[in-house]
UniProtKB/TrEMBL annotation:
It comes from Chitinivibrio alkaliphilus ACht1. Residues 805-828 are annotated as: Disordered. GO terms for molecular function: ATP binding; DNA binding; DNA negative supercoiling activity. The active site is at Y121. This is DNA gyrase subunit A. It catalyses: ATP-dependent breakage, passage and rejoining of double-stranded DNA.
Amino acid sequence: MSDHLNDSYLLIEDEMKRSYLDYSMSMITSRALPDVRDGLKPVHRRVLFAMGELNLSHTRSYKKSARVVGDVIGKYHPHGDSAVYDTLVRMAQDFSLRYPLVDGQGNFGSIDGDSAAAMRYTECRLTKSAEDMLDDLEKDTCDFQANYDESTEEPKVLPAKVPQLLLNGSTGIAVGMATNMAPHNYLELRSAIQQYIKDPDIDIEDLIRTVPGPDFPTGGIIYGRKGIYDAYKTGRGKVLMRARAEVEESGGREQIIITEIPYMVNKTTMLEKIVEQVRNGKIDGISFVRDESDRKGMRIVIGIKKDSFGDIVLNKLYKYTQLQSTFGINNLALVDGQPQLLNLKELISHFVKHRFSVITRRTEFELRKAEARAHILEGLLVAVDNIDEIVKIIRGSDNDEQAQQSLMDRFSLTEIQSKAILDMRLRRLTGLQRLELEEEFKKLQEQIADLKDILANESRVYAIISDDLDTLAEHKEYRGARKTSIVDSTAEVSLEDMIPDEDMVITMSHEGYVKRTSAKTYRTQGRGGRGVKGMDSKDSDFIETMFVASAHSNLLFFTNFGRCYSIKVYAIPETGRQSKGRPLVNIIDFLPDEKIAACIPVKEFTEEHYIVQTTQKGTINKQSLGAYAKIRRTGINSVNMDEDDRLVSVSLCTNDAYIVIATLQGKAIRVSAETVRPLGRNTRGVRGISLREGDHVIGTVTLTSEEQEILTVTENGFGKRTALSEYRVTNRGGVGIINIKQSPRNGSVVSVMAPDPEGDILIITRKGIIIRTEVAHISTTGRNTLGVKLINLAEDDAVIDVTSCTKEEEDSSGDDSLNTEETPVTEE
C-alpha cells in the first residue's frame, strides 16, 4: 500500500514540474517578453494586425475601441477584454510610449493615473508609426501561423520598418525573468543603425556616442552616464532620472517650478508623497504645493518659505520623493524563441537582420509577381501579332478547353498565357493597346532585372534598409528632437546637498557635549555687555571650546592620544541656543579615555596648506594638510608626544605665514613658518618656544601680513589688539617676548587669535555666558599693555574661550535679540 502511495506522489510531483515548466515557457514566449525583431509581445502584435485588417489607417476615420477589442479577442487573443483594452490604451498614451502606435480619440487616461474611459466610449485608429510596423506585410515578408482555433491566420512577427524595441522600449514580468527596456530617439537610432550597416564590426563605444542614452516620453533629466554605459555594454544598468525643475523668484520669495517628471511616475502620487513628507517633517521649507498643469503642458509650483532656500528644498525633494527615480534597464528579449540579454549592438544587429530578411522576401515576392505578369504579357503580345489566326482557332473550337489547347499547341503557349488570351477583351487588339503592352513589358523587364540584382547583391539590400530609415525620418512623427536631457553628474543627492552652507557656531563642553547653532542666533552687542546664555550645562560641566565654521566644512578633531578624527559640520546635531547638545562620543568612535584636545574646520584639503600642531610644552609640528584628506571612521595617528605633554593648539598656515606661539603668562614668540621643517604624520615635532617654570602654551596664531593683528583675551574678561609688526621675528626655541602685561586685574591669558577687523568675536565663560561683539570696538594697543574690558563677569565666572565669526546684519524682528539679562535656562 505504501509503495503505491509513493508512486502516486512521484507521479504528482512529475506532473507538477512538467505543468509548471509548460506554463513558464508559455508565459515567457507567448505573453511577457517581446520579440527582438519587431519589439512586440503577441497581444500588441495582434492589436495592430487586427486594426490593420479593419483598415484603420491614420488617414481614415476612427472606429470604436470596442470593435477593435472584439476582433482581437474573437480572432486572435483568447483572453479577457480588459487585458486587450489596457494594451490598446497604453499604446495610445503619449506619456507611456515615445512614439504612440494608436491614435486615440476620447479619454485614454492621464499621467495623473486617471483610468481611460470604457472602450464603448473611446475611438481609435493606427498612427503613422504603427502603419510602418505593418507595411509590406501583404508581400509575404513574414511567416503566418494558425490562430487559436485555426479558423484564420495571424503573423508570427511584423515587418517593422522602425526599430520598435529600442524606439518605445518594453516592460514585462515572466516566470523567473523580466524585461525593462527604455525608449529612445528615432533620429539617434537611425544614425546608429546606419553606422552598423556600414561597419558591422563597429565598436559598441562608437554606437554609444551616437545614441547617448534613453529618450523618455515625459522628458526629464538623466544624471550620469555610467548606468547608460552599463546597459548598452552588458544589457543591464540603472539610470538615474530627475524631474526638470527650476528655482524662480516670485513676489520676493522663491518657488520651485516643475515642468517635467521622471518616466513612469504618477504625478498625483508624487504630489501626495511631497505633501506627506512635508507634514511628517522630513522636508521643511515648503509653504504650498500647487498643480497648475493644463493642456499646454505640465506645471507644478512649490512655494518656499521666507527663511528657506529653494535649492536646498529641491535637493530634499530629489532625495525623499519621486522627483528623482531610477529606471532599471534590463534588455531581455526573445531571440529565435529563446530569452537573451542583449547589448545595444546586438539589438541593432537583430533588427538589421530582420529587415534584411523582410526586404529579401519582399523582393522575391515582387520578382515572382513581375515575372508572372511578364509571362502573361508575352502571350498577349503573341496574340496581338497573330490576332486573325487566333480568332479563327477560337471560332473553330467547340469549347474553351479545346480553344485553350489549340492555342497552346499552335503558338507554344503555356496554360496561363492561353487562358489570358481567351480572357482578353477585344479593345486590347488596337494599335494603341499594343504599344501600351509593349511599354509595360519593357518596364517589367527592367524591374525584373533590378529585383534580381537586389537579390544578388547584399549591399543593395542594406542600402534599402538605410534608405527606408532616411525616408521615415522625413515624416513629422520622427523628426522630434530629444526630450530627455543627459548631464554628466553622477552624484547621488547627499545629505550635504540638502543643508545650507551657512556659518554655524560649534560649541563643546568640558564633559564632551557638542552642538551646532546658527551664527545668526547670536546678535551683536556693544563692548562690555552681559551676553546671552549659550548652553545649558550641569553645575559640574562648563563650555570649553567654541568656534564658527561653514556647515559643509570638515571638522578635524585632534585628541590627547595624538589621533585625528573627521566629520562634517552638519553631522553635529543642530539644537537651540540653550541646549547642551549631545555627547561627542555618540558621534565619533573614540578610544577609551580619549579626549578632544583641539578642533579645526577645513573647507578644502590642499597641498599648499599645512597643519601646525603645538603642545603644552612648546613643541611644534608642521604637516601637510593633504595627509588628512581621507580619514577612517576609526581615526588616524597624528603626532607623537611625551606622556606628560598634551596638544593645546592646531591651526592652518602656508609657508609664507608667520607662527606666533603664546603662553599662559603673557609671553609670545614669532617664527617664520618656512623655517619649520614639514614632517609626516605620527612624528614628534621640534622645539617652538622655551618655557619658564609654571608657564605653558595656550595657543598658536598664524598670520601672513604685518598689518594683521593678534587679539589676546584674558580670563578676567580683558583683551586688546596688537599689530603683528610689534612682534619681531626670531628663531624658534627662544623664550619669546611680552605679549600682554599681566596683573591680578587681567588674570592669565586664555586665548590668542587673528581676528577679522570687520567681523565679530564670540566670548564664552565658564558658566556658559556668550557675548558677541565687534572686533572694531576693541582697542588696538602695544604689546606691553593691560587691554580693555570685553565682558562683565559675575564674581565667580571666568572667560574660557574666544572665537571669531562672520559679521551679520542686525535684525530687530526676532526673538533672539540679546540684552544685558540672561536668557532663562530651559532643558532640551
